[in-house]
Design goal:
Helix content of chain A: 25-40%
Number of strands of chain A: 17
Shape of chain A: elongated
Radius of gyration of chain A: 22 Å
Strand order of the largest sheet of chain A: 2-9-8-7-6-5-4-3
Order of helices and strands of chain A: EHEHEHEHEHEHEHEHEHEEHEEEEHEE
CATH superfamily of the largest domain in chain A: Alanine racemase
Largest sheet of chain A: 8 strands, parallel
Oligomer: homodimer
C-alpha cells in the first residue's frame, strides 16, 4: 500500500525520524547516568512502546489506568501511573499488581496517602507510591521545601503502603524560551526533586526513586546528580511546539496527518482539505510562540514542507490551508484529490484523534505497517 | 450502577435534557414546514440517532464516510455526507449505494462534479450530489449568485451523476451575538441557498433539495420559504458556546464529563481533577465570548452548577478548577475522591474524546444505560 492509496484523514508515522529521536534521547540519558522511563501517553501504542523502552518489560510511565492495563497485557511489568491517584482507582491498581505488574502510584496529599495505605493493609499488598513535588508552580505537588507535608505524607504511606520516592515534572518548560531558560528549567526541576528526596531521607524515610522529566528538560539538563530516572513522552515524535522552543527541528517531527484536497476558494487564497480539528486536534500550542503554525505545517506527500504553508483555520472535518500571513510565498498548485501531510502542534493531542499509525520510512511513500493505538480510560 | 461508581473521567448524558432539546427543534422545524435532517457528527451514536431522526431509516447528515457506513449498518437509508467529496472516496460511496443506501455527496467545483460523473458512468449507478453554496464566507462553497459556476457544476454532474440540489451552512452564526444578528444569519442563509436553487432551475437543471442549517440558525429562522430541509447537530446536546450566544440556557446542556478530585493547591485556590484536555477536548470556543468558561463549567454530581466555578486550565489528564477570575464566590469544599460534572464548551469536540455515553435522567444519579459511540474515519 502506498500513502496515496490510504483513506484520509489518517495518521502517518515516519519510522526513520522516530528511531533517530529515540536514539538521541537514549544517548543523552545514558550519558547523564540515569534510567529512561518513557511516557507512553504520547504514543498509546504497544508497537511504539517496544521501540522506546529499555526492554519489553519497561520501565514505562502512563497517564491512565487503561494505558497501564493494556501495556501490562502486552508484557510491561514496571509501570508508573503519573497522575494523582483517586481512591476509587485503587481496586484496579491492586488488581494489576496482583497480576505481577509493579505499578506505582503518585500523590501529593495525606488524604491520598491514607487511602493508599488503607487499601494496602486491607489487601495485604503494599502499594508503592511516589510523592509528587511541585518544582515550578505549574500543576500538582508539594513544594520542594515543605518538609512538614513531605514527611506527613511519607509517614502516612509507610503505615501499610510503601514510599518509593519522589517525582516532579517541569511543566513550565513548555513555555520556556531559549537554551539558557530551558537549562534553568532543567536545573530547577532537578534541585526541587532532590531537595524533597533529601528531606524524606533526613526524616528516616526511604526514597529510592528520584524521578523527573519533560521532553524540553530531558534535552536540556547537563547534570542529573541525585536523580535516578527521567520521564519524557513527546521526544519520540516531536512536534511544532517542541520545534518552536528549539528542542528539535521541523525535520525531526515524525508524526503527520495525511489529508486530501477537497476544494479551493481561489479569491481568498484558500485550499480546503479533509483534515479539520477532528483530525489535527484543537491544540494551538504554537499560537503564543514566535511563529504561529495555526493548526499545523503543510508538507507534500513525501513530508517536505511547502514554504510558509499552514492550516490557518479548521472546522470539524475541514482544514483551510493558506500561506502564512505576511509571507510572500505562493500558494502551491494543488488540485482536487491531491494529498498533503500536516505536521501537528502537539503530538499527544493529534495522535489521540486517531486509531492507528501508518508507518513509512523517510520520503518513501510505501506504508510498511499499520500499528494500532488506543484511547479512552 | 450509580454515577459515583463509574471510573472517571467519563461522559454523562442527561436523557431528560436531550429529549427536551430534540422535541424543541423538531417542533420548530415542523412549524416552519420543512424536514429535519439531523447532523449525526455530534452524537456518533446509533442510540442517540434513533431518538433524533424522523424514522430509523433517516434522514440524516454525516461528516465522515465511517459515520455513513456505521449508521447504514444500523438501518439508516437516507444519508447526506456533508463534507466536500474527494475522488478517492467515491468507491466507498458507490459501495454504500449498492447496498441500498441513498447516500448523497456534496461538492463545489467542476473537477469534483466531473469525478462524480465519471464514477457514476463507470459504475452505471448515478451518484446524487448537492452543490455547496457559500452563504457567509465561512468555509467552502460557490457564491450564491455565481451563476456560471453553479450551472457549470450542475451540467458536469448531469453528464452521468445526478444533481439533487443545493446546500449551505451558516458557519458564521457561531460567532453571531444577539437574537437580531442570529435572525439575520438565518435569513441570509436561506436567501443564499434559495438564490442558488433558482439559478439552477432557471438554467433548466433539477434542484429538488434545498438544504441549510446550523443549530443557531435553525433556532432563529422565522421563515424558510424555498427550503426543503434543515440540518443541525449540536441542538441535541447543546453546550456552553450555544449558551453563550443565547440559543439555549446552561440548564439545557445534556452532556457533561464526570471527574474525580485528585488534589488541591489551597494557596492558589485550585482543585485538581482527573479530567484534563483529553477528556474535555481543547475546544476553547467560549474564550472569545462575553463569558470565558475556560475548559468547562463545574457542577455537582447531580448536574447543578457551582457558582462561578470553571476548569480554568488543563493538562492532558489534569484539570485545574478555580473560581472564575473576578468572582467573589467561594471555592466549594471538595475532598479527594469527590465527583463533579463538567459542562463542555463544544459538544462535538468533547464527545469525540469518549467511547460511550453514561445515560442518566435529570438529577437522578442512577446510570440507566451505556450507549457506545464511535470515532475515526
Amino acid at each position: 500500500m502506498m500513502l496515496h492509496e490510504l483513506q484520509t484523514p489518517c495518521l502517518v508515522l515516519d519510522a526513520v525520524r522516530m528511531e533517530r529521536n529515540v536514539a538521541r534521547l537514549r544517548a543523552r540519558v545514558a550519558d547523564l547516568g540515569v534510567r529512561l522511563r518513557p511516557h507512553l501517553k504520547t504514543a498509546k501504542s504497544v508497537e511504539v512502546a517496544r521501540r522506546v523502552m529499555d526492554s519489553p518489560g519497561g520501565p514505562a510511565t502512563v497517564s491512565t489506568l487503561k494505558e497501564a492495563t493494556l501495556f501490562a497485557a502486552a508484557g510491561v511489568r514496571d509501570i508508573l501511573y503519573a497522575v494523582g491517584i483517586a481512591p476509587g482507582k485503587l481496586a484496579q491498581v491492586l488488581a494489576l499488581r496482583a497480576e505481577g505488574v509493579d505499578l506505582m502510584v503518585v500523590l501529593d496529599t495525606v488524604a491520598q496517602a491514607e487511602a493508599v495505605a488503607t487499601a494496602s493493609r486491607e489487601s495485604g499488598a503494599p502499594i508503592p507510591a511516589l510523592i509528587e513535588v511541585d518544582c515550578d508552580g505549574h500543576r500538582s505537588g508539594v513544594l520542594p521545601g515543605d518538609a512538614d507535608a513531605l514527611v506527613a505524607i511519607g509517614q502516612a504511606l509507610e503505615r501499610g503502603a510503601s514510599l518509593r520516592g519522589v517525582l516532579t515534572h517541569a511543566g513550565g518548560s513548555y513555555t520556556a524560551r531559549g537554551a539558557d531558560a530551558l537549562w534553568q528549567c532543567a536545573e530547577n526541576e532537578r534541585k526541587g526533586v532532590v531537595q524533597a528526596a533529601n528531606i524524606l531521607r533526613a526524616a528516616g524515610l526511604p526514597c529510592p526513586v528520584v524521578s523527573l522529566g519533560s521532553t524540553p528538560t530531558a534535552h536540556s539538563a547537563t547534570d542529573l546528580t541525585g536523580v535516578t530516572e527521567v520521564r519524557a513522552g513527546v521526544f519520540v515524535f516531536f512536534d511544532l511546539v517542541m520545534a518552536g522552543i528549539g528542542v528539535c527541528s521541523i525535520d525531526d517531527i515524525a508524526l503527520s496527518v495525511l489529508a486530501t484536497v477537497i476544494g479551493h476558494q481561489r479569491g481568498k487564497g484558500w485550499i480546503l482539505v479533509d483534515a479539520g480539528w477532528m483530525a489535527m486536534s484543537q491544540d494551538r500550542g504554537t499560537s503564543k510562540q514566535s511563529v504561529n503554525q495555526g493548526y499545523g505545517v503543510v508538507c507534500d506527500i513525501a513530508g517536505r514542507p511547502y514554504s510558509d504553508l499552514i492550516v490557518s483555520d479548521a472546522n470539524q472535518e475541514h482544514g483551510i490551508i493558506t500561506v502564512r500571513p505576511g509571507s510572500s510565498s505562493l500558494l502551491p498548485d494543488l488540485a482536487i484529490g491531491d494529498r498533503v501531510r500536516i505536521l501537528p502542534n502537539h503530538a499527544c493531542a493529534t495522535g489521540a484523534q486517531h486509531q492507528s499509525y501508518h508507518v513509512v520510512r523517510g520520503a518513501d511513500c510505501k506504508v510498511e505497517a499499520e500499528w494500532p493505538r488506543f484511547s479512552g480510560w
